[in-house]
Amino acid sequence: VEHGDVVIDDWHVTTGDKSYRDGHFYSDKAPGVSLLSVPPYALFVLERRLTGGGLPGFRVQPLDPALEAADAAPEPEDMLPGDVLVYDRAQLSALWLCRLFAISLPTLLAGALFYLLMLRELALPGEGEDAPPTRRRATWATLLWLLATPALGYGCGLYGHQLAADCLLAAYALTVLTTPEDEAIRTTPGLPLLIGGLLGWAVLAEYTAAVPVALMTAWIAWRRGWAFAAWTCVGGLPWALILAGYHSWAFGGPLKTGYDFVYLPEFAEGMAVAYGIGRPDPAVMIQLLFGSYRGLFYLSPVLLLAVWGMGLRLAGPREPGSLRRGDLLLATAIFTWYLLLNSAYYMWDGGAAMGPRHMVPALPFLALGLGPALLRVPRATVILGTIAFAHMLLITAAGPEAPGYGNPVWTYAVPHLSAPTQPGTATTLGRLMGLNGVWSLLPLLGLWWLLWPMEKTPADSA
C-alpha cells in the first residue's frame, strides 16, 4: 500500500517469518491474508494522510532506561539483549482493523453458514428447521465451534489458518445448502464460480489447503455433477493465477514460494527437505490430540464429543434433509489430512501457538459432529464446552502466541492475563483502550452480554 511493492525491507526486523532473495526481504507466508488486508489498510493510511496523522511504525525500547530517557535508543539492527520492538498506536490500530476485516468478519460469515448447516442437521422429525429447539441447538453448535475451540484465538489474529477454515467451510456449506433443482442454479454458473473462488482463497490463505480443495472438488463432482465441478474449477482459476503471479514477482517463478528462500538458519534447516514434511508420527499425533502442551482435546475437551458424534452419524441411518454420508466422509477426510500433515511437520507444535494451529482449518469439519452430541448428551456437551470456552478465552485474551514450553493455560495465559500490558503490544480492544489484566476483557464480555440470545440452553430444552 505505501510502497507499491511486496518487499518488507523496512519491517523485516519485526518478524522471523521472512524470506531473503536478491537483496530483499519478503514474507514467507501465503499471501491471502495480506491481500485481503490491503483495502482496510489502504483506507487507514488514507485517513492518516488526510488528517495529518503519523503512518504506522515501530521503535526500539531499550532495556537501559537511561538510553530511553536520553532518546538514544539503538536502531533495530543494533538491538542489545533485553531490548524490544514496540509498535506505535497507529500500527496497533491498523493491525486491529486489518484483523477485523480479513479474519474476524469472514469468520462471522462462515459461522452463519455453519449455523444453517446445523439447522438442517439438527431438525428432528416433525420439528422443522424453524422450531425454537432446533434453532437453540444450532446456535449452541455454532458457538461451540467459534468460541470453544482455537477458532476463537485465530479468529482474532492475523493468521491464515482461520481464513482457510472459513473459505473451506463456506464452499462446503454452499454446496450442501443450495438446491440442485433450482432452475437458476442449474442454468447459471454464478454459484459454482463463487464456490471456486472460495476454494481458491483457501489456498491463497494457506498452502496446506490445496489437498482439501482437491478433495472438495472431487466431492462436488459427485454431489452436484461434473458441469458444476468444472465451473468450480473455473472460479478458482483467477486466484491460482494471482498466486502464481505473486510467486513470480517475489520469488522468481510461479511454483517458487517463500519457503524456498527462508532467511533464518534455524527455520531454513528444518524446511530444507520437502518443506519440513516427513512421515506422520503416531507419538506426535497423541501430543497433538491429548497432550497438555498443544493437545486439541486437552484445550477443547468438547471436541471429544464431536468425534463421538461424527462416528454416530457415519454408522447410523441418515435422517431426511440431513448431511449425507459422503458429506461426513469428506469432513472426516479433511480432519484426517490436517492431523497427518501436522504430525509429519518438523515444527509440529507451531512455535508460539494456541493449540495445534496447523489443524485450525479442519476444526469446522470436526465440529459438525457436535450436532449428535447436542441431541444425545446436551448437558455433558454444555459442561465440556464451558471448560473449553474458559481455556480459549484465557489464551485469546493473553494473546494466541503461547510460548514453546509449559502449559498454555496455567503457565502462560493465567499469569499473562494478570500482568500489565507492555507498551506497544496490545492485542485486544480492551488493551487498546488502556485496560490491563482481566479488565481488558470488559469490552468483549459487555458486547457478548448485549448480543446473547435470552434463550434456554440445549440442556434446558432436553
What does this structure look like?
By secondary structure, the chain is mostly helical. It is built from 22 helices and four strands. The N and C termini lie far apart (53 Å).
With strands numbered from the N-terminus, the spatial order across the biggest sheet is: 1-2
Poorly predicted sequence stretches spanning 5 or more consecutive residues: none
Percentage of β-strand residues = under 5%
How far is it from the N-terminal to the C-terminal residue, by CA?
A: 53 Å
Biggest sheet, open or closed, and with what strands and sense? 2 strands, antiparallel
Decide which structural class fits the backbone: mainly alpha
- Contiguous helical run count: 22
Helix percent reads 55-70%
Secondary structure elements and pairings:
Blueprint: E1 18-21, E2 24-27, H1 32-51, E3 58-61, H2 65-69, E4 84-87, H3 89-122, H4 132-147, H5 151-154, H6 160-177, H7 183-187, H8 190-205, H9 210-224, H10 226-251, H11 265-271, H12 282-290, H13 296-299, H14 302-315, H15 325-344, H16 363-367, H17 370-376, H18 378-398, H19 408-417, H20 429-432, H21 442-451, H22 458-461
Helix pairs in contact: 1-3, 3-4, 3-6, 4-17, 6-8, 6-9, 8-10, 9-10, 9-15, 12-15, 14-17, 17-18, 18-19
